[in-house]
Amino acid sequence: MKYLLILLFLGTCQFANAQVHLKKQTFYELSAGGYDAPFLSKSNFSLQMGVGKYNRKGNAHVLSLNYNQKTASVFNAQNNNTLPIQIPVQQFYFSYKTDFRFYSNAMNDFHVRGIGRVNFGYESLNHEKQSLENLYQLNQKSDFLLGVGAGLEVEYSPFVAGVHQNINILSNYQKFSSVTFLGFRFHIN
To answer: What gap in Å lies between CA 114 and CA 164, rounded to an integer?
Structure first.
C-alpha cells in the first residue's frame, strides 16, 4: 500500500506543477549529494537549500545555504607518504547562482541548464585543531572561502540532478571541489 501511494504521488506530480517556470515565479530547492565523490555517504556529503526567482527569459537567480563535509587523508611531506589519519573537512557557505537554459521541452517541465555561481563562506579543517594525535602539525588551517563555480543541471519538474565544479580561491586546503546532487524544486505563487 505504501509503495502504491508513492507511485500515485510521483505519477500525479506533473499535473500539480502545470504552471512552472513562469516570469517572476518564486521557488524553493533542496538537494543532497556527494562532495568530491559521485555518491552520498555518511562521511562525504553535501546539502543545499535555496530560494530563487525566474526572470522574464525563464532563467533563475538563486540564493542558497550550503554545507559540505568529507574526511580526508593526511599527507606527510617530510616522508612523502600518506598517514593512516583521517581528518574532517567542512565547508559552510552562502551562494548566489544564476542559471541559463540550454534546452526546454514544449511542456516546460524538462530543462537542461548551465550554472554560474559565486560562493562565500568558511572552511574548517579538523574541527579547528592544528595538532594530529599529538604527533603531527597541520600546515593548512581553517579559513574563509571565496570562490566561483560552474555546473550543469537537469530538471524534470520537480526533480533536479546535476554537478557543480567550484574554484575556492582563498582555500588553504583544496582549490577545486566538485559536488554531485539530486534534489527537488518546489514552485510557489
So the answer is: 10
pLDDT, tens digit, 9 for 90 and up, residues 109-138: 899 999 999 999 888 776 556 555 655 555
Identify the residue whose cell numbers are 572561502. Answer: 145
Q: Are 29 and 62 in contact (CB under 8 A)?
A: yes
pTM to 2 decimals?
0.75
* Rounded CA separation 67/121 (Å): 10
Q: Which domains does the chain have, with CATH numbers?
A: 2-187 (2.40.160.20)
**Which contacts of 165-169 are long-range, i.e. CB under 8 A and separated by 24 or more positions?**
166/117, 166/119, 168/119, 168/123
* DSSP strands (E only) in 26-175: 26-35, 45-54, 60-76, 81-104, 110-125, 131-132, 136-137, 143-156, 159-168
